[in-house]
Design a protein that fits this description.
The complex is a heterodimer of chains A (about 575) and B (about 575). By secondary structure, chain A is α/β, with parallel strands linked by helices. Chain A contains 20 helices and ten strands. Chain A has a six-stranded mixed beta sheet with strand order 6-7-8-3-9-10. In chain A, α4 runs antiparallel to α5, α6 runs antiparallel to α7 and α6 runs antiparallel to α11. Chain A is elongated and about 120 Å long. The two termini of chain A are about 55 Å apart. With about 575 residues, chain B is of the alpha/beta class. Chain B contains 22 helices and twelve strands. In chain B, α16 crosses α18. Chain B starts with 5 loop residues before the first helix and ends in a 5-residue tail after the last helix. Classes of the chains: A alpha/beta (about 575), B alpha/beta (about 575).
Chain lengths: ~575, ~575
Amino acid sequence: MKDLVRLLRLFAAERVWMAGGLLLALATILANFGLLALAGWFLAASGLVGLASYAAQNVFNFFTPAAFVRFFATLRVLGRYGGRIVDHEATFRELAALRSFLFARLEPLAPAGLAGERSGDLLSRLVADIDRLGDVYLRVFAPFALAACAALAMAGTLAFFVPWAGLALLAGLALAGLAVPAASLALGARPSRKTVAIRNEMRADIVDAVQGMAELLAYNAAPALEARIGAANDRLIGCEARLAALAGLGAGASLLIANATMGVALLIGLGLAASHHLPGAVVPLLALGSLAAFEAVAPLPQAFQLIGGMAESAGRVFAIADRPPPVREPARSPARPSSLDIVFANVRLRYAPDAPWALDGLSLTIRAGEHVTILGRSGAGKTSLLNLLLRFAEYEEGSATLGGIELRTIRGDDVRSLFAVVSQRTHLFAGSIRDNLRIARPEAREADDASLWRALEAAALHSLVRATPAGLDQPVGEGAARLSGGEARRLALARAFLRDTPFLVLDEPTEGLDPLTEAGLRADLARLARGRTVITITHRLAFVAPEERVIVLEAGRVAEDGKFASLCANGRIVPRLARMQKDLIHL
Amino acid sequence: MPAPSSPHLDRRLIDAARPARAGLYAAIGLGFAAGLLVILQALLLARIVNGIVFRHQSLRAVMPELIALFALFALRAALTFLSEIAAHRAAAAVKTGLRRALLSHIFTLGPAYAAGERSADLAATLTDGIEALEPFLARYLPQRSLVALVPLAILATLFPIDWVSGLVLAVSGPLIPLFMILVGQQAAAINQRQWHQLLAMSAYLLDAVQGITTLKLFGRAREEIALIARISDEYRRTTMASLRVAFLTSAVLEFFASLAIALVAVIFGARLLHGHAHFFAAFLVLLLVPEFFLPLRTLATHYHARMSALAAARRIFAVLDTAPAAPRGTALPPSGPIALSCRGLKAEYEAGRPILRGIECDFPAGRMSAIVGRSGAGKSSLAAAILGFIAPSEGTILVNGAPLAALDRESWWRRLAYVPQTPRIFAGTVAENLRLARPDADTAALSAACRRALLLDVIESLPQGFATRLGEGGIGLSGGEIQRLALARAFLKDAPLLILDEATAHLDLETEALVAEAIADLVRGRTSILIAHRLATVRKADQILVMEAGRIAEHGTHESLLARNGAYAALLQSVSIPV
């Protein structure tokens, strides 16, 4: 609940829209209440006057109530229409605020602060949460506010005529709007939880069935899984039946309460009218008014149902958004140094205070212009070394300098502006080829197509792009699905070409490509590498030249460092890796 | 696949609901009964108020009516409850039937159909798609009948009592659907487009969030915050422009409902004033006018349910309408060692896109054959054909001389073990994942299989050993461990034929060496067909088949193929292995 209130504060800028929507909705409900109550009174009053003397007929003001009837009818139509427009406007604005908020909070965290077992899932769930939370005001907060205001206004109106009838209405509204939904929510908590659990279980099995079908069939295990999904379906239906029964019970109870409230108001009115303590024309007003009043509490059951899920979504979003950024940024960077040597001395780095050291006393110097290859098993510290260098993670001990300046005194963006990174994880966006290239050089406008084409040519992608109907505007699809693996990597490469930086980081740049494509890409990479400091990260030895400097990481520190050829002859780890590599060459 | 049209889909969905007819009729019947009770309640209410206010009766005199009124309240509540249950029963029966039919049909269509991009869509159809039918079946369908029945009953009540107001309703009633159709058609088109735009916006955010590291690397992340706000804003503006039109639909309905009440009140007021009408009739009409429009309003709120149900139904029926590629055989496969041969084997993805273009080859019993070639050469398709997942368009596969197509699929699979390139870990424990291959295997057998797959140390170091949960909600295994788990499955199955698609992803060298060692152990003594990516594996093969563009370009041993200096030698050279 605290998280939900916090959301409201995020929406503060849209309070005019929110209040506007609320007022219009209130006007709609009160107009409907007014319309029916007034019409009831009006008919009875006209009827009574019609029976009375001719003089009374002349005194009776027919036109004012008739005008109000028309006014209420019009107000209701306009209120409903306008209310829906304003509500949606507010919702879209809130959604936009949420989206910006999420992105702004994730930005300082990525990537080290978001690394998790299934960060892909995490992110898509967060985006789904945001979509859901866009509705939180409209479907959760507004109905309660609306019901409260409308209930008081309508009960007050009835109380003006007959205090007890007003009180009865207030009680009826509270029962139908609060007690019944709260009770059905409490009763439904267990079956709902079970439903969610079974549904997740079944979903996992179904995904398994579809994606693992080849293995399931080949192992004759499909019928067993089919039976399991069938059984889960039956259990699910059972739970849903209980929930449907509860929903029916709730709907029945609400209807009963609404009708009974009307019955009670009627009885009170009839009693007073029979004893001439109340003008008879007020009786239909009481009956119709109390019946119409229940429109105000109709959305509350749904609001109650949504609270739990919305709170969970908000909790998930804030749990991530409130994570402390892994790196603290200085206010400004010192001037760019003249030389760009990298010197690490006894660097220790870890991702959480209780996590093991990912870099544990790393000491390493890379001179400007050097080409080095960093080797190591997964977990040896290769990624952490990159995170250190690119200011994605903070080092706790030791010193890490770039051109003699301590890294933690330079702003992350300024450090990263010196690097071009090509890796298998480089993200391609769902826009066009041009969109993807412009990320590397935002100032490149249409007139600058020539530089984009040069980059494509350097990455050996120009003939392919030229052959597509839209050229640079050719969409690459979601996750670059319309490009082959090799083409996608080349597009990432073209981006790096566009970015003329002193450092080039190649993080397994050819992983996942077939060997022939890989060989082609290697040649282009060599061209890109010319004249820069190049750090290649890999867990394989293929393509390492004998005179190249190789650094082997083990347990977060340097285990071997030297020319590849000499390490092959005298090293401890490299010769063993080289022997294995020979057998394990991929075709 | 051709997309079935909407009216056609409506009909098919209703046909699919045929087994649940009883439930649907019950829901409609209960809803209609509730509608009749509403009329009865209005009659009673009008009588009571008329009696006291106009005929000056005492409370005691209207007591029977009052008691009946409160009894009606209870009865209506009970009907509401029962119709909810009946509607859910009907929907549940349809959902269960369709889910079972769909799942079993997908298994019949096989992995060649379900693979790739389509897999996510199929999984979504089986889960969310089926669920999307519930509101349509449980709410929209019964309501669609009530929308005609209840207003007719109200008209039938009103006409004898007051034909003028009866006429007002009889005229304005049918006008509403007419107007709604006119406005709705435009709104539906807009709605659909808007819906896509909304999805596009959330896809945009997801794309940006997933690419956040890349944006940071290029120093563009902070600009993106403003960009997201700007794009959201543009979406809002275009969406709102069309929603203003779409909401007219509900405004029309609201307009008529309010207009009718206002008309009834004003017209009756004048007539009552001049003594031309009875209060009883006037009050009754006023009570029934909102009820006259209620079913239509309820239907309008379920209209969206119909849209999403039809979208789901389109996907469901598209799958169910897909015919399986090949008829199934019934013959039993041989029980001893297995030798395979392919004769003139051709297959295509779809008409005109051949993937196998006349394969001629033999896989001798008990020997290991390695298939090599570039991606797209047809290696996986050949394996899929042998597995019976795709049907040849021409030619045959012979199993010990008898055609594979004539064999019973399930019995054929019992004779082989299959290790795909990216093995799947299923939701469940380690033991359950292994027992997929042999459900009756005891723990000793599981341990033995894991030992040979060089995985036992890993399993024993897990928190609960073989009982550790994997996959969804469980712990994750590394790439190398997953591969060895798949090998352990194959060891456990101990089948005479092994089809193995080696992983192309690079693991670290130590892990790769372990996997290679386990594979070498696994192939021993079986007819093994390996789609091989590692030179070490290929070297050990009894024969190497080199595939190029859907054909076997050459075959022989490592040495003989090198001596030929053909496709194989070229392939090795391309990865800069000195020949």
